[in-house]
Amino acid sequence: MGAIKTVGVIGGGAWGTALALTAARAGREVRLWARDPGTVSDIRSKRQNPRYLPKITFDEELAATGSLDEVADADALLLVTPAQTTRAMLAALKKTGKVRGPVVLCAKGIEQSSGKLLSKVLAEELPGVEPGVLSGPSFADDVARGLPTAVTVAANSAKTALSLCEALQSPCFRPYASIDILGTQIGGALKNVLAIACGAVVGRKLGASAQAALTARGFAELSRLGTAMGAQGETLTGLSGLGDLVLTCSSSQSRNFSFGLRLGEGFMASELISAGGKLAEGAYSARVAVKLARKHDVEVPICETVAKMIDEDLTIDDALNTLMARPLKSETAGL
Ligand SMILES: NC(=O)C1=CN([C@@H]2O[C@H](COP(=O)(O)OP(=O)(O)OC[C@H]3O[C@@H](n4cnc5c(N)ncnc54)[C@H](OP(=O)(O)O)[C@@H]3O)[C@@H](O)[C@H]2O)C=CC1
Ligand SMILES: O=C(CO)COP(=O)(O)O
C-alpha cells in the first residue's frame, strides 16, 4: 500500500474524536463520521465534542459528517464505535461499496454473541480488507489534550503496520508497529474486565496491596489466555497488554475502573447497567472472555468472578471470599 494521505474515522465518541485529532496533528486529511447530528454540528461549528470530551476545544479543524459514504473511501479507516457494534458498522461500510484501505479496529472487546475477536468479525464482514488493530494505554481525554501517549498499531504485514504508524505519528503520539494482530486485541479486551475487579477492590477500601495483587494475578490471566491463543510474549508485556492493564487498573479516569468502584461501594451491576451511564466495555466482555478461556482450557478466576458480579449480582464480599478461598496454586511452573 502507498502512503496514507486520508484517514476516515468511524465513531464520534471520546476515542473516535481523539483519534481524529491525532491523525489531523499527524498531517493527514481527516473525515470523521458520527451518527449523532448534534455531535457532527458541534465538531464542525464549535471545534468541540461536549458530550464526550467536555471542556476541550480543538486547535484542529475536523471535517465531521453523518454520511458513511463520505468517509468509507479514505486511504485508511479507524473503526472506533463500541465493540458490540462492530459487526453492524462493518456491514454498513460494506454497503457503501467504497472501502479500499485497511480497517483499523480501535474498540476493545470480544463479540458477545459469537465469542469472536473483532479481527475475525472483520474478516467475515469485509473479506479481503486488510485488518489493523490500535490498542494501548491511552485515555481519550489525555490524547485529545495532546498529552504524550504511546500505543501499539498491528497489521498482518510490517509494511502496513509501519504505514499506519507513520500516518498517525506526531510529537505527542508515538505508535509502535507490530504484526501480532491477535495478541494486540487480547490485552485490550481483558484489561477492561480486570479493571472492573481492581475498581471494586478500591471501592470496597481493601487496600493498595490487594489492588497490586489483583493487577499482577490479572496479568497472569491475560498472559495465559494470550499465550494459549498464540499471542507473542512481547505483545503481552508491551503497551497493549501490561501497559494498558496497569493504566486501567490504577486510575479512576477509566470508565471500567469507575464501574468497578461503584460495585465496590455496594451498587449492584444490574442497577448500574440499567441506569445507563458511561461505556464500560468490560461489563459486556466478561462472560464471553470466560467462555473463550474455557475453550482454550485456561483458568481465569478473576474474570470469572467479575462475570458473576455482572450477570448474577454477586456482591463484592462474596466475590472476595470466592477468590481468597480458592485452592492454593503455584506461581511458577514445575511446582
Ligand atoms: N475513551 C477512551 O479513552 C478509549 C476508548 N477505547 C475504546 O474505543 C471504543 C469506543 O469508546 P469511546 O469512543 O470512548 O466510547 P464513547 O461512549 O465515548 O462513544 C461511543 C460512540 O459510539 C457511537 N455509537 C454507539 N453505539 C453505536 C451504534 N450502534 N452505531 C454507531 N455508533 C454507535 C456513539 O454514538 P452516539 O453518541 O450517537 O450514541 C458514540 O459516538 C471502546 O471499545 C473503548 O474501549 C480505546 C482506547 C481509549
Ligand atoms: O482503554 C482505555 C485506556 O487505554 C480507556 O479505558 P476505559 O474504557 O476504562 O475508560
From TrEMBL:
Q: Which residues form the Glycerol-3-phosphate dehydrogenase NAD-dependent N-terminal domain?
A: 7-160
Catalytically driven reaction(s): sn-glycerol 3-phosphate + NADP(+) = dihydroxyacetone phosphate + NADPH + H(+); sn-glycerol 3-phosphate + NAD(+) = dihydroxyacetone phosphate + NADH + H(+)
The record ties this protein, via InterPro entries, to: 6-PGluconate_DH-like_C_sf, 6PGD_dom2, G3P_DH_NAD-dep, G3P_DH_NAD-dep_C, G3P_DH_NAD-dep_N, NAD(P)-bd_dom_sf
- Residues binding sn-glycerol 3-phosphate are 108, 136, 138, 191, 244, 254-256
User: Its annotated pathway?
Assistant: Membrane lipid metabolism; glycerophospholipid metabolism
The superkingdom of the source organism is Bacteria
The UniProt family comment states: Belongs to the NAD-dependent glycerol-3-phosphate dehydrogenase family.
Query: What PANTHER family does the entry give?
Result: GLYCEROL-3-PHOSPHATE DEHYDROGENASE, GLYCEROL-3-PHOSPHATE DEHYDROGENASE [NAD(+)] 2, CHLOROPLASTIC
- What is the name attached to this protein's record? Glycerol-3-phosphate dehydrogenase [NAD(P)+]
- Source organism per entry reads Roseibium sediminicola
Phylogenetic lineage:
Bacteria, Pseudomonadati, Pseudomonadota, Alphaproteobacteria, Hyphomicrobiales
